[in-house]
Write a sequence for this structure.
């Protein structure tokens, strides 16, 4: 199995999941040269990560699909049994993939949204305002935890790790989000998360 990734991108959630499940996987950095290659574009016409190539040669794109497939390899591991808890897992993942991801890009790399530099300050301000609201929603949904779906770590926590890392990097007021603030040390203590951070050369910060 091979996972194409970019450092500190949303593919980080897939890397954590691979390690949580103790799966055999080769990690390939999708550099700009790799993403421009005809081989990669055949795998992923949108030239985005993550891209997972299974042992059988099947190609899976889009983060939610990749995470779901990885869980299925271990008979639903990292997914709760309770139907409502499962819904909460995908609710969290959907909040990121449909709402937060683009706003983080808009906040950090506004040129990817609009090339006009005169609009970048406004784009950043709008994105920060919306993301602050969404982070509060995520904090409320997390509740006392200890994890997103309750007592057990799930793929939603792998996804929220990406959100928290980006929010800390962009200096959002995580200290004001009491549930996330309490959740971060639990996540950073997990060997899978520590290994993922080390492999991508990222310094974990609470």
């Amino acid at each position: 199995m091979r996972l194409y990734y970019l450092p500190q991108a949303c593919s980080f959630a897939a890397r954590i999941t691979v390690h949580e499940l103790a799966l055999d996987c080769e990690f390939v950095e999708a550099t700009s040269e790799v993403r421009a290659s005809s081989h990669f574009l055949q795998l992923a016409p949108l030239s985005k990560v993550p891209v997972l190539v299974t042992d059988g040669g099947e190609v899976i794109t889009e983060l939610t699909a990749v995470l779901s497939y990885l869980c299925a390899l271990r008979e639903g591991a990292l997914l709760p049994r309770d139907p409502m808890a499962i819904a909460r897992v995908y609710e969290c993942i959907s909040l990121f993939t449909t709402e937060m991801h683009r706003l983080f890009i808009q906040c950090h790399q506004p040129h990817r949204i609009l090339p006009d530099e005169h609009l970048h300050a406004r784009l950043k301000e709008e994105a920060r305002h919306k993301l602050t609201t969404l982070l509060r929603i995520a904090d409320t949904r997390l509740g006392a935890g200890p994890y997103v779906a309750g007592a057990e770590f799930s793929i939603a926590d792998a996804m929220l790790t990406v959100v928290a890392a980006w929010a800390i990097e962009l200096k959002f007021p995580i200290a004001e989000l009491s549930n996330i603030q309490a959740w971060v040390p639990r996540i950073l203590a997990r060997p899978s998360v520590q290994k993922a951070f080390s492999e991508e050369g990222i310094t974990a910060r609470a």
Q: What stands out?
A: The domain at 2-73 is CATH 3.40.30.10 (Glutaredoxin).
